[in-house]
């Protein structure tokens, strides 16, 4: 009888935690083949959240120990519903100075949540598209890295800006 009550209490706590409102408006990952080719674009289509609240935008990556660079260059393009496009070339640190990969995770897969834009208000209604492409270069080389190893998944997330009380 006591075991049943403990089990029931545990289930209630579990469902309460799971059912809490998430801060995520959008959170999606797409798998990358064994190597992320420089011409391969990962895209996400997003229907507009409300047009009043500010949101934080993140690029999410999963990588393995096969990733051999200390940084990562990405080209990220956001296309607005009425045709406007914003294109950014971004650099992120992926390892500390000793070469240890950054990110969360205890196995050989690390997860990195990288800032893209802060306090974005989606003023246009309709569908937005975000395109992400790797733009890595080796030191002294003009041409980009043809096929980048070690990135397993590319994601994009939108979080509702938390209002501090």
UniProtKB/TrEMBL annotation:
NCBIfam families for the chain: GldH_lipo
Xref: InterPro entries: Motility-assoc_lipoprot_GldH
Protein name: Gliding motility lipoprotein GldH
Highest taxon in the source lineage: Bacteria
Keywords annotated in UniProt: Lipoprotein
């Amino acid at each position: 009888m006591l075991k049943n009550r403990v089990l029931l209490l545990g289930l209630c706590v579990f469902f309460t935690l799971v059912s809490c409102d998430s801060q995520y408006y959008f959170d999606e990952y797409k798998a990358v083949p064994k190597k992320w080719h420089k011409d391969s674009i990962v895209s996400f289509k997003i229907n507009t959240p409300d047009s009043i609240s500010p949101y934080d935008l993140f690029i999410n990556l999963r990588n393995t120990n096969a990733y051999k660079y200390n940084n990562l260059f990405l080209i990220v393009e956001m296309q607005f519903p009425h045709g406007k496009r914003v294109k950014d070339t971004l650099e992120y640190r992926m390892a500390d100075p000793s070469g240890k990969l950054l990110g969360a995770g205890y196995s050989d897969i690390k997860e990195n949540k990288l800032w893209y834009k802060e306090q974005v208000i989606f003023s246009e209604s309709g569908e937005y598209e975000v395109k992400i492409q790797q733009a890595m270069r080796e030191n002294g080389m003009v041409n980009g890295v043809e096929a980048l190893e070690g990135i397993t998944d590319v994601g994009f997330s939108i979080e509702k800006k938390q209002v501090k009380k």
